Amino acid sequence: MPGENLSRDEARERAALLSVDGYEVSLDVRSATGAAEGDGPRTFRSVTTVRFRCNEPGASSFADLIAPSVTALSLNGRDLDPSEVFDGSRIALEDLAADNELVVDAQCAYSRTGEGLHRFVDPEDGEVYLYTQYEPADSRRVFANFEQPDLKAPFRFEVRAPEEWTVWSNGAGERADGVWRFAETKPISTYITCVVAGPYHYVTDSYERVFEDGTRLEIPLGALCRKGLAPHFDADDVFLVTKQGLDFFHDHFDYPYPFGKYDQAFVPEYNLGAMENPGLVTFREEFIFRGKVTRASYEGRANVVLHEMAHMWFGDLVTMEWWDDLWLKESFADFMGTFANVGATRFKDAWITFANRRKAWAYRADQLPSTHPITADIRDLEDAKLNFDGITYAKGASVLKQLVAYVGQDAFLEGARRYFKRHAYGNTRLGDLLSVLEETSGRDMGAWARSWLQTAGVNSLTPQVLLSAEGRVDELAVVQEAAVIAPAEHPELRPHRVAVGLYRRTGEGTLERYARAEVDVDGPRTVVAELAGAEAPELVLVNDDDLTYCKTRFDENSLATLRDHLGALTDPLARALCWSALWNMTRDALLPARDFVGLVLRFAGRESDIGVLQMLHAWANSALTHYAAPDWRETGARLLGEGALRELRDAAPGGEPQLAWARFLAAVASSESELRLLRGLLEGTEKIEGLDVDQELRWAFLEPLAAHGDADEGVLAAELARDDTASGKRHQVRCLAARPSAAVKAQAWAQVVESDALSNALVEATIAGFAQASQRELIAPYAEKYFATIERVWAERSIQIGMDVVRGLFPSLRDSQDTLDATDAWLSAHEGAAPALRRLVLEARDDLARALRGQACDAAAGR
Question: Could you tell me which residues come within 8 angstroms of residue 21 by beta carbon, excluding any fewer than 6 positions away?
Fold first, then answer.
């Protein structure tokens, strides 16, 4: 990996020297089918012609290419010896002219890791499927180029593929003489070019729009997936959300969609959620639902569709100059995805999901030792890969939501419109966006940006309530503090526009808001004068309506109210905010894990928002696994299992809560009676009215049975025969690795760590099965092996697999001071290790230290 890295300084130097006029890329992927030749990697031919200018004739530079071999190279008609100028990742370019033409004929390798050109063989029918995934810098695995976002250029692709295949790229294509040729793109960055090829199932539609000036826009729409998933593919719903999104963005951006067609490909073994390639967006195929799922899953898919669509403007039309300003696309797309979901689709409660789920991701990332400003310091490509994180996405989106409250929605959207028109097909930095927002809002954006974009860490906001002798609010103030764990490193107190809500119980027993005030919180203590004289509240909710990004805390009276009456809160957003605050308190060792579990068992059954309910299930399981005192875990597991079973039986037949509780039961089942019920549901000897045990739910039930020794290899093989698909194979691999056997764990470890035979999807499945909370003693010996192995894995494997191994196999379930000490010892002994690798280990160490603090808090509560 180090030889494949690219530093920011190198990229800036190259951008100052070169400008690119265009690419012609010819790929021959007919080798994807049939037997592979030789002992090396399966390869395909890639021929690239790139025309570029150099403003200092005679200077030297380099092009990027990661390939097993180069057959021929020429620069300005002069043949070059590949052995002299190509080192496996870079092509040295000497004595450049003012105008240059580079031709590279290479043998590039198909990928098994989801990076570059990924090759997937469907076990169901043997069909081969290809797709590309490049962000941040893997297009160089497919064709020679200048791999950095600010060297944009038009691209022309042509692809030779098996006769029975269809091929797609960013532009419209057609086949002639056995070759697929695609229309030239607008100037775009290398990382958002794309090719998808294979016998995909393809559905078409179209979008039409007539603008106020009478101009007409027609966009051909397409959606594709593997043939094996076609029976489950609800393309009509994908097209519905797509059309709603295009209408919404045309209404608000005043800039017509600029990239011609709009295809959306759902592809196998995908590392990401989706990727915003203009004209050909790629998604993980898990967004095609093989079984019954809740509304939250459809809302999540719609959010991703709209997120990627927002990128057509934020990221594709206008692109950040370097990865420091990654937020200029990801934060905006994350915000706009939810903004459009609420404004254009049937998912009107998407801000609740955002508050409960997306911001939880941000809060966690912003308290790690690797926290960084939204505008980060990205030194190189390895830094960039790791910064696709909760800060860049969800914190950035939260801050933009705060910005909308700060400058007003009209000013914000007008700033976006000017930004697109001013910088179309170009590259920008932070200052370019701030300047248009200053124009439209009349506000000084510099101070706001310094506080929100250029500092790290999360503030906490806590209410202070003083009551008069008459029982009314004498004074209500909001106290702001810096990061709880490390305030010295991140001391920033930010300006917050917040709503403060006062709640009390009604005669019907519900908990309702009766007073609200918006205030600008600035500094350590802000008095909310508008609420003086109000009747005494039972609950004070700072950041009501979720206007800002902060950790909400409670005064003692409010916390006592939530302990007894959380389920009585009628407003779903307020309820979600309270749950989120209580979870943050659990992670911060301010609320014992057993108390959080108790609140979930008491009140989750009343939760009306299915997405919040499913998040509560995940949090309760995490609380038991990581934050509960070890001597309470058995009790907690029993309580969660009993509670899940009770709620499952009480849930309305056939409803979404019933399905959610069934899945939660599968996640926490440990007693013989619970496992016996799962077996009975699988075998048909047990029934729960309304519960359809479809294939996906069968696999969910099989994992705990496998983990507790109740489903052996034969049972899992029989289930795979029943579901002999790519999805079934992933499930089977996970269940196989979950079995409680030392031999099983040794085999799983070897398959992931000592071999590169598994694809990225099967590596992920094996790791998920390996680490079972009920098998702490069984996997404890692998802690020492982990620290002895990770530096070698990082050096030898792709960065994606390296990340999966370092994160997924960290011995977090060996949660003791010994493991913390071993982690510190590794960090001390490996100060020269790759910075990205050290960051991953530091993050895992922080999670472990946080878990130990939580366990101590929970143990104290039990004494």
Answer: 51, 52, 53, 153
Closest CA to 851 of 822, 816, 807, 824: 816
DSSP conformational letter for 672: H
Q: How far is CA 400 from CA 258, 336, 409, 483, 507, in A?
A: 24, 9, 11, 20, 39
| Ordered strands of the 201-210 beta sheet | 201-210, 216-225, 262-267, 280-284, 274-275
In three-state secondary structure terms, 464 is: strand
Alpha carbons 35 and 757: distance in angstroms, whole number: 17
Report the candidate in 49, 47, 62, 72 with the shortest Cα–Cα distance to residue 4: 62
Instruction: Tell me if residue 308 is catalytic.
Output: yes
For the full predicted model, state whether its pTM sits above 0.85: yes
Task: Going from the first residue of the chain to its last (863 residues), give the mean pLDDT of each consecutive group of 10, the final group possibly shorter.
Answer: 79 97 98 84 97 97 97 97 96 98 98 96 96 96 98 98 97 95 98 98 97 93 97 98 98 96 98 97 98 97 98 97 93 96 97 94 93 90 86 93 89 96 96 93 90 92 95 96 64 91 96 96 95 97 95 97 97 97 97 98 96 97 98 97 97 97 97 97 96 97 98 97 96 98 97 95 97 96 97 93 96 95 97 94 97 98 87
Q: How many helices (H) and strands (E) does the chain have?
A: 29, 28
Which phi and psi angles does 218 have, rounded to 5°?
-120, 130
Taking the alpha carbons of 338, 341, 343, 346 in that order, is the dihedral positive or negative? negative
Q: Is 858 helix (H, G, I), strand (E, B) or coil?
A: helix
- Take residue 636 and report the two structure tokens written for it: 């907690």
Which residues have C-beta within 8 Å of that of residue 567, sequence separation ≥ 6?
602, 603, 606
Report how far residue 744's alpha carbon sits from residue 728's, in angstroms, rounded to the nearest whole number.
19
CB 349 within 8 A of CB 612: no
Give me the catalytic one of 308, 382, 674, 719. 308
Cβ within 8 Å of residue 428, ≥6 positions away: 318, 319, 320, 321, 325, 328, 419
Residue 648 DSSP SS3:
helix
**DSSP letter, residue 111:** B
In the sheet where 460-467 sits, what is the strand order? Answer: 525-527, 473-481, 460-467, 551-552
DSSP code string of 500-545? EEEEEE-TTS-EEEEEEEEEEE-SSEEE-GGGTTPBPPSEEEEEET
Query: Which DSSP helix (H) or strand (E) runs through 297?
Result: helix 295-311
Which two structure tokens, joined as six digits, stand for 593? 């894990």
Amino acid at 661: W
**N-term to C-term CA, the chain:** 50
Q: What residue type is assigned to position 768 of the chain?
A: A
Could you give the angle at the alpha carbon of 419 between the alpha carbons of 413 and 422, nearest 5°?
145
Please report, to the nearest 10 degrees, the dihedral formed by the alpha carbons of residues 58, 187, 334, 836 taken in order.
-20
Helix axis angle for 295-311 and 610-622, nearest 10°, is 100
Summarised one tens digit per residue, pLDDT across range 792-826 is 999 999 989 999 999 999 999 999 999 999 999 99
Cβ-contact 229, 201 below 8 angstroms: yes
Q: What's the half-sphere exposure (Cβ side, CA atoms, 13 Å) at 118? A: 23
- 309: number of CA atoms within 13 Å, CB side? 32
Where does 122-172 show beta strands of DSSP type E?
128-133, 155-160, 166-169
pLDDT in tens, 379-410: 998 888 888 889 999 999 999 998 888 889 99
Cβ atoms of 538 and 558 within 8 Å: the answer is yes
